Amino acid sequence: MLPEASKTFEAEGLSDRVELVAGDFFVEVPPGDAYLIKSCVHNFGDERAIELFGVLRRAGAPLLLVDTMIPAGNEPHYSKFDDVEMMVIAGRNDRTEAEWAALVTAAGFEPGRVVRCDERFSLLEAF
Ligand SMILES: C[S@@+](CC[C@H](N)C(=O)[O-])C[C@H]1O[C@@H](n2cnc3c(N)ncnc32)[C@H](O)[C@@H]1O
Predict the structure, then answer these.
(1) HSE of 112 in the Cβ direction (CA atoms, 13 Å)?
(2) pLDDT in the model for residue 68
(3) Which of 13, 45, 64, 94 has the lowest tally of Cβ within 10 angstroms?
(4) Are 24 and 52 members of one domain?
(5) Does residue 88 come out as left (phi exceeding 0), alpha (psi in the -120 to 50 range) or beta?
(6) Domain count along the chain
(7) Which domain holds residue 15?
(8) Would you call 42 a catalytic residue per the annotation?
(9) Which of 42, 57, 77, 95 is the catalytic position?
């Protein structure tokens, strides 16, 4: 993945601001001040998600989780379409904001704010 990622950063003129590191986030993550993980965890079931959050928790920095999060209520929201898509392609559902908070809690984090970024993504802080 690194050559592909490198091209993206070069095209955006950001190469001097990043260090690209390969790795398996179920095993360990490089040291950091915070971990931003986007669109990765909704692919995994609860057990695997808690395993991954456990690796991040033990790394000792806050987590900024950006993913599809179903808000409470019965209003139209993109995440509800994604929920159906995930049922078809992954055999599992998307998660509500409360379900994400419970998962990070199960891994030892304290959940913070949920920030709705756009129609598709929300960010959950976890400390
Ligand atoms: C749906 S993509 C999201 C990519 C990017 N974060 C985005 O939002 O466009 C899921 C990413 O999870 C990465 N991934 C899956 N399993 C992984 C693992 N065990 N360790 C590290 N990365 C992994 C894949 O390489 C892929 O880049």
Answers:
(1) 10
(2) 94
(3) 13
(4) no
(5) alpha
(6) 2
(7) 1-30
(8) yes
(9) 42
**Is 74 found in the same domain as 94?**
yes
Q: What is this structure's pTM? A: 0.92
Token reading at 103: 């998962």
Residues 98 and 120 in one domain: yes
Task: pLDDT band for 8, please (50, 70, 90 cuts).
Answer: very high
Q: Name the residue of 20, 40, 41, 123 to mutate for ligand 1: max ligand atoms within 8 A of Cβ.
A: 40
pLDDT (tens digit per residue) in 16-65: 999 999 999 999 999 999 999 999 998 899 999 999 999 999 999 999 99
Domain co-membership, 39 together with 19: no
Q: Is 92's pLDDT higher than 90?
A: no
